[in-house]
Amino acid sequence: MSGYGDDIGMFGDFFRYWDELPEQGGFSLFGWIHMGWLVGIVSVCLVVSHRYRRVDAATQDKILKILATASICLESLKDIYLILIGEMGISYLPFEMCGLAIFVELGFAFFHREFLGEIMCVISMPGAMAALLFPDWTRYPLFNYMHINSFMKLSAASIMTASVALNFGNTAFAATASENPKDVLKNFFESFSPTDHESWVNYFASSVYGYYRQFAQNAFNQAKRLGLLDINKAELLYAEKVNNVYAPKYYEFNQYYDSGTNYACYKTITDMETETGEYFGNGTNFSLVLMIREASGWKIGGICKCPRDLGSVPAGITVSRQSYGFVSYQSQPSYIKVKDENGTVKNVAFSTYLKNVTYNEIGNMGYYDEAIKANVMAIKMCGWWAHAAGYRSAEGCDIKYGDVAYKSSYQTKPAITNAINAVDGKKLVSSGGQLFFTSYFAGSSDTAGKNSGRLRQNGSNYLASTKSYTYTEILHYYYDNSSYNNPSVGIVKIN
Questions:
Q1: Which class for 1: exposed (0-12), middle (13-18), buried (19 or more C-beta within 10 A)?
Q2: Rounded alpha-carbon distances, angstroms, from residue 282 to 272, 320, 475
Q3: Which CATH number does the domain housing residue 293 bear?
Q4: Each residue of 136-178: pLDDT tens digit?
C-alpha cells in the first residue's frame, strides 16, 4: 500500500489506510479536531431538528429520506474505497450496531414503521453518540477519507435521530398517539387546515401510515381533493365510544378483529369546512372512527360515515350525513367509484364493477352455477352498501382493491355473465329492509361460517355441489341472524 499521496503535503494522506499512517498523525480524543466535529454535529442537529419541527409532513418526509440515503451512500462509498485498495474484509460489513442502524433508518424513512422509529431512538441514537464520543478511528488525520467518511456517516445518523427524537411530539410515530383516544381524535381533526393537507397523516396507525402518506402526496388526489384531502378545517364537537360491533371492518386491521383486542370504535360529530362537499358534509358530520392501539398509544385506523341506528345526538347539534352499519335502503347505484390495484380511482358503471370483481374473485374457480349466483349477490350488495355508506370516503372512493378484487383488467365468461343476468334486479337486505355489509372471503371448502355474516367463497361452492343448495339458501346460510359490522340483520330478505 505505498505510493498514495507521496510528497504532496497534508493531502498526501487522504487515501492512506491506517497501517500506512504514522501513529502520531491522527487526532486525540477530545482534542481540538474531535471537539470541532462534536460541536459542529450538535449545532447542525439543533438547527435541522428545529426546522423539522416546523415544516409540513411532506417536507419532514423529504428530510428523513435525504438523511437516510446519505447514510447508505456513505457506507457504500466506504466499502468501494476499501475494495479498491484491497483492504475490504468481513469486519467492515455493516453487521455491527452502527451498521445495522443505517438499515433501520432507511426503513423508517421510506416505510414509516413505528417500531423502526422506536429502535432508532432507543438503540441507534445512543450507539451513534457513543461512537462519536469515543471514535476508534483516531489513527486517521483530519484530511483523510476514512476520517471524513466516518464522521459524516455518523453525522447523518445523528441528525436524523435527533430530528425524530427531539421532536417526539411532532413525529409520525409517537406524538400523534396518546393514551386517551379522545385526545387523538381532537388533535386529528384540528390538524386539517387550508394550507396543510398532510399533517393529518401522522395520526394514522403505522400499518396504514405509508399508504395515507402516498395518498396525500399524490398530485392527482390533491388536485381532485379526494377524500380527506377535501377537508380545509375541522373541529371535534362530540366523541363517544360505541360497541365494537360497529367498528369498520377494514381488511388492513384483520389481526385486531381476530384477536378482539387493541381496537375501539368511536362515533364523532365534527364541524367541517370542505372544498367540494363530495366526501364529507360541509357543516356538521356524524362519523365513525376506528381507533387502533399501538405501543405508543392510540392511533387512527379509518374514518367513514356513521350508522343512523346509533342515534343519541346531543341537543343543539344537527347532523348532515350519517350512514354505515345498517344503511337506509336506496336504489342500486348506476355508477360506483372504485380504486384498482394501482391506486387509480375510477368512476365505473355498476354493471362493469360487478363483472370485473366477480371475474377477478372467482372467474377461474369452476364453481357451480348456484355458488356463482350467491357470490354475485354478495359482491353486488357489498358495492351497493359501500356506495351508500361512504365506506372508503376518506380515500376518495366507495370501495377499493383489497376490499374487493377490482383490477385494471378482467375477462368475460359465460358462466359469470349468466349468473349476473339471473340475479339482475335482485337485492339482499336485512329483515328490516336495510342495506348491510355483505362481507365475503375465500374461506374453506366445508360448512364453516354459518350465520357469520361472511360468505365463504369456497364454502358456497361446497354447499352448492355437495348439498345442492340454491343461491338463496347459501345467502341465508351465511347472513341470517348475523352481526358482522352491525347489529343482527335478522332473517335476510332476497327479492
A1: exposed
A2: 6, 8, 38
A3: 3.10.450
A4: 888 888 888 889 988 998 888 888 887 776 554 444 444 466 7
Q: Using alpha carbons, select from 268, 259, 252 the residue that is nearest to residue 303.
A: 268
Identify any residues that bridge with 294 across adjacent strands, giving them in sequence order: 297
Q: At what angle do helices 97-111 and 57-84 cross, to 10 degrees?
A: 140
Instruction: Pick the last residue of a domain from 137, 170, 203.
Output: 170
Same domain? 237 vs 160: no
Domain encompassing residue 298: 181-310
Q: What is the CA radius of gyration of the chain?
A: 29
Residues 17 and 159 placed together within one structural domain of the fold: yes
Report the alpha-carbon distance of residue 416 to residue 423 in Å, rounded: 11
Question: What is the pLDDT at residue 8?
Answer: 42
Task: Return d(Cα 49, Cα 63) in angstroms, integer.
Answer: 10
Residue 131 pLDDT > 50, yes or no? yes
Q: What is the pLDDT of residue 86?
A: 84
Same domain, 45 and 166: yes
Claim to verify: residue 161 and residue 15 sit in the same structural domain: yes
Do residues 148 and 191 both lie within one domain?
A: no
H or E element, residue 388: helix 369-389
On the CB side of 146, CA atoms within 13 Å amount to: 24
461-468 long-range contacts, CB within 8 A, separation 24+: 461/365, 461/367, 461/368, 461/371, 463/371, 464/367, 464/368, 464/369, 464/370, 464/371, 464/374, 465/368, 465/371
Rounded to whole angstroms, the Cα distance separating 182 from 170 reads: 18
Of 295, 310, 325, which residue is a domain's last?
310
Measured distance between the N- and C-terminal CA atoms of the chain, rounded to whole angstroms: 87
86 or 396, higher pLDDT: 396
Q: For all residues of the chain together, what is the average pLDDT?
A: 85
How far is residue 385's CA from residue 277's CA, in Å, rounded to a whole number?
20
Stated pTM of the model = 0.66
In degrees rounded to 5, what are phi and psi of residue 494? Answer: -125, 105
SS3 216: helix
237 and 134, same domain (yes or no): no
